[in-house]
Amino acid sequence: MKKDTLTSLLDFFAGLFVGIALACGGLCFFIFSDLGLVVALFFSLFVFGLFSFFALLAKSMAALLKESRQSRI
């Protein structure tokens, strides 16, 4: 697999994980709102944080694989 293809794939998954984090975080809040505000906020932030972590991981790996023409420090 070429490097450009891999970076494009990682960028795609980063966007996908951000979308999942936002959608599922909001949905978890409404699903678990019957159990109480604290429980709903906990599950919502947990799901949002989990998928945001994977999005940041994929985006940082894509940024490391991209060739930079600037000199590195």
TrEMBL record:
<keyword id="KW-1133">Transmembrane helix</keyword>
<keyword id="KW-0812">Transmembrane</keyword>
<protein>
    <recommendedName>
        <fullName>Integral membrane protein</fullName>
    </recommendedName>
</protein>
<feature type="transmembrane region" description="Helical">
    <location>
        <begin position="38"/>
        <end position="58"/>
    </location>
</feature>
<keyword id="KW-0472">Membrane</keyword>
<feature type="transmembrane region" description="Helical">
    <location>
        <begin position="12"/>
        <end position="32"/>
    </location>
</feature>
